Amino acid sequence: MEQCVDYLGLIPLFPLLGAVLIGLLHVFTCKRTVLPEKVYGILACIGPVLSFVLALKVFFALKVLAPEARFLSHKAFTWFSVGDLHINMGFLADPLSCLMLLFVTFIGSLIHIYSIGYMGGDKNYGKFFAYMNLFLGSMLVLVLGDGPVVMFVGWEGVGLCSYLLISFYSEDRSNVLAGNKAFIVNRVGDLGFVLGMAFLFWGIGASGFDYLALKANVKHLEPTIALIVCLLLFVGATGKSAQIPLYVWLPDAMAGPTPVSALIHAATMVTAGVYMVARFSFLYAGVELAGNIVAWIGMLTALLAAIFGMFQADIKKVLAYSTVSQLGYMFAGVGVAAYSAGIFHVFTHAFFKALLFLGAGSVIYALHHEQNIWKMGGLKNKMPKTYITMLIGALALAGCPPFSGFFSKDEILYSSLATGHFGIWAVGVLVAGMTAYYTFRMIFVVFHGEPRDHHAYEHATDAPQVMTVPLIILAVGALLAGFFNLPGIFGGDQMVSHWLAPSLSEHHHASVGLELLTIVASVAAVALGIWKAYTKFGQGAPEPSFSGFADFAYHKFYVDELYDRIIVQPYKAIGSKIWQVIDPNVTDAPVKGVSRLYMVLGTAFKVFQVGYVRIYALYMVLGLSIMSLLLSQSLH
């Protein structure tokens, strides 16, 4: 049985209070006096750092408990109670949520520190940090919520904050459209989440709606309803975690400031879908068909995004498609019921993807907001700290041993093979090679060869320490994080998998032969991808001109245009017809009719309003006489 601790609610509360305080300071001082940026920076970092400290406290509190008893809870208050339905604003810390808490708060704190330097001089400096604190606080509510209803509060919070931060530079209409796109696409997914919760509660009954109660009563769920619930919840995950068919918003999310991209891609939001599926492992583990669908959607998304990433010119979009692809790996992991492998990839990915995005931000900062890789080149010697740290991140993303991405990706591929999903395994190995190719294509084009823009090159320099120190810390994580779950074949004991075991419903497989096959195949694919990128771009290369399939992939298979043609434009046309026909004749007509009736009555009665006191006195006498007459008749 879980123990109750009263400090769990403080973990999301600190950044949420920071958001309110910074927001109020920004609103009330921006028109009178400008607060020093240092004040906003300190206030912004206090909340995430305190949350990280409390997350460490949670970890040590859980660690001393027996594995089967590693649950801490806190009921803040009863949110609402209707009949048999009782929903508390409650928080639950177990091994799964604790792991998420640790890296979300740690990496979130580093991104906030980095942002102090990156956002320097911005006129909306305070508003930016208010949104960032709100974003982090919402993610912590999502992770700590003791049931799907509380999770959904954080789920919607990160969706709102993504809109606010993606469209932060609102003077540019394209940024606003990108924010709208993220918000609308996520609402489509959220409808699936809400319907999934409704079916789940209806199927299980009013026996408790927190995770522990749902887990205890999931046996009462009929198989058909369980499948429907799993698929509907996964629809929500495809929106939040950018999987087919709802992945289209994430590349456009690059419109926001680079620290926002790092926070979205590494520590918040896009990992929420994977976390949600893992949190419901007690449900997905019993519905094999749903797991297979999750796994195949994830791996096909990984393949599609890798194809797109091979041809992009914007450094942030290359990384964006790599995120979509790596999320596909994570879903493949949880889809084949290797939940700890999927979550472990979430953990390692947070380090190397935050590192790569912040490193890209350092390059963009040095080149005065240039993002086209074909206008870069030769930056290795001008920005050595950025180059070395990004190289470490690239090696981790590519899955090169002994960097962190190798261990987590290998665990997913091995689990796929061990559970009989040979197709998932084969596509995963192929995507590993493609990932290595486009990642090192970016590294070679940006940092090697001759500079393509000599003016920008001459003025380029490494970012200030407030930006490079977080890069160095993240680089250490990208290098070493994989060793936390070192597999037995390398002499490890898979600490992360054992830590997560009480929270997840999975069975571990052990086959040295299959694991060796996976390692050899994936390392060979990665080596081939890096070698191919080196031969084409290692010594510098001109910007390519695409044709045929390459041009088709560069334009992302025209999926956005297809969605616009078959969904957006018809929707707009229907809306236009409603505005032209139904609004004036159906919606507005009764309202306008009532207003016209009042106007007619007013016109009729105004003849009696002559402005003479004697006339009003006459009206009063007549009125009293009529009342007296009626009263006398009623008495008789």
Question: Which regions are unreliable across 5 or more consecutive residues at pLDDT < 50?
Answer: none
Residue fraction in strands? under 5%
The overall strand count is 3
Shape: globular
Number of helices: 25
**Spatial order of the strands forming the largest sheet:** 1-2-3
Structural class: mainly alpha
Share in helix:
over 70%
C-alpha end-to-end distance: 79 Å
Please tell me how large the radius of gyration is.
Answer: 29 Å
- SSE pattern, N- to C-terminal: EHHEEHHHHHHHHHHHHHHHHHHHHHHH
User: How is the main sheet built?
Assistant: 3 strands, mixed
Mean pLDDT: 89
Q: What do you see in this structure?
A:
Strands 1-2-3 form a 3-stranded mixed β-sheet. The longest helix has about 45 residues, at about 560-605. It is globular, with a radius of gyration of 29 Å. The protein contains 25 helices and 3 strands. A hairpin with a 2-residue loop joins strand 2 and strand 3. About 50% of the residues are buried. Among the domains are: about 1-210 and about 255-270, no CATH class; about 565-635, no CATH class. The chain has about 625 residues and is mainly alpha-helical. The termini are far apart.
List the helices and strands and how they pair.
Layout: E1 3-4, H1 10-29, H2 37-63, E2 72-82, E3 85-93, H3 95-118, H4 125-144, H5 148-166, H6 173-204, H7 211-217, H8 223-240, H9 249-252, H10 258-267, H11 272-279, H12 281-284, H13 288-309, H14 315-335, H15 339-366, H16 384-398, H17 404-418, H18 422-447, H19 454-459, H20 465-480, H21 495-500, H22 512-537, H23 549-554, H24 559-605, H25 613-635
Parallel strand pairs: 1-2
Antiparallel strand pairs: 2-3
Helix pairs in contact: 1-2, 1-4, 2-3, 2-4, 3-4, 3-10, 3-15, 3-20, 4-5, 5-6, 6-8, 8-11, 8-13, 10-15, 13-14, 13-18, 14-15, 14-17, 14-18, 15-16, 15-17, 15-20, 16-18, 16-20, 17-18, 17-22, 18-22
